[in-house]
Amino acid sequence: MLAVFCDFDGTFAVQDVGSTLARRHLGARRSALWAEFERGEGTAWEYAERLFDGFDLPEAELLAFLETIDLDPGAQALVAWCAKRDVPFRVVSDGFDYNLDRLQDIHGLRFDYTANGLRYEQGRWRIRAGGPNAECGCGTGICKRSVIESWRLSHPNAFCVHIGDGRVSDTCGALAADLTFAKSSLAEELERRGAPFERFTVLNDVIASLERRFSDFV
Fold first, then answer.
1. If you ran DSSP here, which 8-state letter would residue 198 be given?
2. Per-residue pLDDT tens for 104-130?
3. Residues 166-174: what's their mean pLDDT?
4. How far lies 101's CA from each of 87, 107, 135, 154, 197, in Å?
5. How many other C-beta atoms are found inside a 10 Å radius of the C-beta of residue 79?
6. Which of 11, 85, 144, 200 has the CB geometry, 3.0–4.6 Å to 205, for a possible disulfide?
7. Alpha-carbon span 144 to 210, nearest angstrom
């Protein structure tokens, strides 16, 4: 059984929702916290907590911002391709459920997802990790390796595909998958490690590759 797991920010969507918001509204704080993270001071999720938990961006402003987020040109086609072939498809994001729910409404499509939690309490963001894994070195709120490994436990014959663009949140999922499509810093990290992957630019490239390979998965 073929199963497809896809990152959201910078992969399924053109922009990175969290990073764009942070650059606009938390520029100096983001730069300082990121420098600490790059020096190895804390995990990726600890960085996110310090940056966003308690963030006082009004909800209406977030909703207006989400209206500006574009999906990859092949995003809807990838969801449709998987649905037509009964291929399980899941967005696996180290972003937030609140944003994914509203972006589905904005763009008129539906997909399963795994993500961190975001709620508004008295006008402030409150966030919670959706699936961390202390045994994995990723240190993220959503360990993508764990998502793929959990799927394999219940689907022993699964052939797992991971699609991503980010070194921090996607590397563990990419290394756990049977086939990885990568771009940007994820591609650079996998090259550095000597790990196999297929480079892509837009999701239509992924669809074309899966179409060529699909007979191998049935």
1. E
2. 999 999 999 999 999 999 889 999 999
3. 97
4. 22, 10, 29, 26, 30
5. 20
6. 200
7. 21
Amino acid identity, position 6: C
- Listing DSSP states for 53-97 in one string gives TT----HHHHHHHHTTPPBPTTHHHHHHHHHHTT--EEEEEEEEH
**CA atoms of 54 and 84, how far apart (whole Å):** 42
pTM above 0.85, yes or no: yes
Provide long-range contacts, Cβ within 8 A and 24+ apart, for 150-159. Answer: 151/3, 151/5, 151/88, 155/1, 155/3, 157/1, 158/1, 158/2, 158/3, 159/1, 159/2, 159/3, 159/217
Average pLDDT along the chain = 95
Of all residues in the chain, the percent with pLDDT exceeding 70 is 98
Higher pLDDT, 117 or 216: 117
pLDDT score at 216: 62
In 3D space, the residue among 114, 87, 86 whose CA is nearest the CA of residue 100 turns out to be: 114
Measuring CA to CA, how many Å separate 94 from each of 44, 58, 139, 145? 10, 22, 11, 12
Structural domains in the chain, sorted by start:
2-216 (3.40.50.1000)
Please determine, for residue 215, whether its predicted confidence score (pLDDT) is greater than 80. Answer: no
